[in-house]
Design brief:
This protein is of the alpha+beta class. It contains 3 helices and 5 strands. It has a 5-stranded antiparallel beta sheet, covered by helices on one side. A hairpin with a 4-residue loop joins β2 and β3 (about 80-85). It is globular and about 35 Å long. It starts with 8 loop residues before the first strand and ends with a strand. The model has no long low-confidence stretch (mean pLDDT about 85).
């Protein structure tokens, strides 16, 4: 499957749990419009990754009055997800560890690490960070 959108998708969201859910739903709709079907493994994986990264942006990257940003693209053979927030001082660990037994949180980056072909963090100009992930189609 080699899909190429006319241009990358980009949208700003208010930093709320409702917006994180909306980002996930829009990911599914956008990918389907680009030819990556709703029920395909890359689409489902991209949805889960967006859900985790958007939730992290809302929970750990929140700055009053600042939004988070979702960008989607499908370079040849890939789905690329980027979620940016305004808090560049709090970076996710490069190698997520398993949370203690019984923990109710802390599994999100493990999920991203398991689903993505590769992922990372880059600084965002003028302020903040972007957490990105790529999935093979």
């Amino acid at each position: 499957m080699d899909v190429r959108p006319p241009r990358p998708f980009r949208m700003l969201f208010t930093s709320s749990r409702r917006s994180a859910r909306l980002a996930r739903r829009l990911t599914a709709e956008r990918l389907d419009a680009w030819g990556v079907p709703y029920d395909s493994e890359p689409a489902r994986s991209a949805e889960l990754i967006v859900a985790e990264l958007a939730a992290n942006a809302v929970r750990h990257g929140f700055v009053t009055g600042r939004d988070f940003e979702l960008r989607l693209d499908t370079p040849p053979g890939l789905v690329r997800v980027e979620v940016s927030d305004a808090l560049g001082e709090r970076l996710p660990p490069q190698h997520p560890s398993i949370p203690p037994a019984g923990a109710e949180s802390g599994y999100g980056l493990l999920l991203v690490d398991a689903l993505a072909s590769r992922w990372g963090v880059t600084p965002r100009a003028p302020v903040g960070k972007t957490v990105w992930a790529e999935l093979k189609l």
